[in-house]
Amino acid sequence: MTSSLHEHSQELEQPFAAYQKALRERLHTFLLTLDPVLRTDVIRALQEEGKLLSPEPFRMHTPPLDAGPY
Question: Is 3 within the bounds of a domain?
Fold first, then answer.
């Protein structure tokens, strides 16, 4: 039961993780067709924070809810 709850919380945190993984894999096939020098530059650019190949997972920032009456 705990494992299921953990998996569900991960899905809520990263709802597009599976799509991002598929995009990364597909992108790597395209990158292989580039000239090695250009490929290095493109990969470096795509590894910046928030980019598809970033080593850190992208965290969506959600603004806090207003504490006022609804």
Answer: no
The values of phi and psi at residue 16, to 5°, are -110, 15
Inside any domain, residue 51 = yes
Q: How far is CA 41 from CA 9, 12, 24, 59, 64, in A?
A: 36, 33, 16, 24, 37
Q: Which helix (H) or strand (E) holds 37?
A: helix 36-46
Work out the burial of residue 22: count CB atoms within 10 Å of its CB; fewer than 13 is exposed, 13-18 middle, 19 or more buried. exposed
Is residue 69 a part of any domain in this protein? no
For 13-54, the pLDDT digits (tens) are: 677 888 888 999 999 999 999 999 999 999 999 999 988 898
Domain count within the chain? 1
Task: Give the largest Cα separation in the chain, rounded.
Answer: 58
16 occurs within a structural domain: yes
